[in-house]
Write a structure and sequence with these properties.
The protein is mainly alpha-helical. It contains 14 helices and no strands. 81% of the residues lie in helices and 0% in strands. It starts with 7 loop residues before the first helix and ends with a helix.
Length: 329
């Protein structure tokens, strides 16, 4: 039962939303808080770059068919499913929520949870490390590009050159700086994971608090009913189920072995809250992003619960397969 309960970080996210709903920050304090948040985001992507071993990425590319399948799932199949949801907007799904779902669909995969669940399930961990890392590197470019393409196609605002510059300055350049310094500080940063995790999560909580403060000020809870939240949870769940099915069947059709199929399932079905929330604050700067990040926050918890259960199913199945020859003998 414990595996289905929200983790500590999810509870902190809910707390940030509640705090913003009760005590939203606005005016000059919000401006200063926004500056601090931007600095925290830049440091977050610097740490991402400093943690990532270049050797890991190079080694993982050797299994190019698996990596390509995961990338296609993340940046092509997911967005196509998001466009399909547009058929239900606005008569069933409100336009701001639909934009949040579409943004969710163009994000890169998670890193930590993808690797952790792949390991628990008995999958190809080196390939998972490469896939998750590569997804996040390419996501710095592909996510804004897909937002510009899909949002402008739907009649919404695309991305200007000014926004591209902000993305480069706040996300990509810190990441590159981290990669440049990785040979010197990478081992130290990886060894201090416990100490640095609070900073990672704290920067995300800052963005969530600021985003929902702006959304509350603009009346998001007056426009969003309980029924809308229930519908959003249902849509997120169906979206995850569809991609889990696609990655599972696709891995079989492509002839991957069991370990690679597991890697495809857990890396291809995830969407990164750690990258998504900071990206939203940069890509949609000057706009209210509360409704944009809400589908992602809900999807984050759903994917953790479902994939935790699925990883244990894979692990138990492997134990059964390993025990069968012994019993037969």
């Amino acid at each position: 039962m414990k595996r289905f309960l929200p983790d500590t970080f999810t509870l902190l996210l809910v707390g940030a939303v509640l705090l913003a709903s009760l005590v939203p920050i606005s005016g000059e304090p919000a401006e200063w808080f926004g500056i601090a948040t931007n600095i925290a985001i830049a440091l977050l992507f610097f740490l991402h770059g400093a943690r990532l071993s270049t050797d890991t990425v190079v080694a993982g590319f050797l299994h190019w068919r698996l990596q390509l399948f995961i990338l296609v799932t993340t940046f092509a199949i997911f967005p196509l499913l998001g466009l399909g949801l547009g058929l239900f907007s606005p008569w069933l799904i409100d336009q701001p929520i639909y934009l949040g779902l579409l943004f969710l669909c163009v994000l890169p995969s998670t890193v930590q949870s993808s690797i952790a669940f792949t390991s628990i399930a008995g999958g190809n961990v080196p390939a998972a490390i490469c896939a998750a890392s590569t997804s996040n590197i390419l996501g710095i470019f592909l996510t804004p590009a897909l937002v510009a393409l899909l949002f402008s196609t739907g009649g919404n605002a695309g991305i200007s050159f000014d926004m591209i510059w902000k993305i480069m300055l706040q996300l990509f350049l810190p990441f590159v700086a981290g990669q440049v310094l990785q040979p010197f500080i990478g081992n130290w940063i990886r060894s201090k994971k416990t100490l640095l995790n609070p900073f990672d999560r704290g920067s995300i909580l800052m963005v969530v608090y600021l985003a929902f403060s702006e959304a509350v000020t603009e009346g998001i809870w007056h426009r969003l009913a309980i029924g809308d939240l229930a519908l959003l949870i249902l849509v997120d769940s169906l979206l995850l189920a569809a991609v889990l099915l696609i990655t599972s069947l696709g891995g079989k059709l492509l002839g991957f072995n069991r370990e690679d199929r597991i890697t495809a399932v857990f890396c291809g079905s995830k969407k990164s809250l750690a990258s998504g929330v900071p990206m939203a604050s940069v890509i949609f700067a000057g706009q209210s992003i509360g409704a944009i990040v809400l589908p992602l926050m809900l999807f984050h918890q759903i994917q953790l619960m479902v994939c935790a259960w699925l990883a244990r199913v894979y692990a138990e199945r492997q134990k059964t397969l390993e025990a069968e020859p012994v019993q037969a003998g």
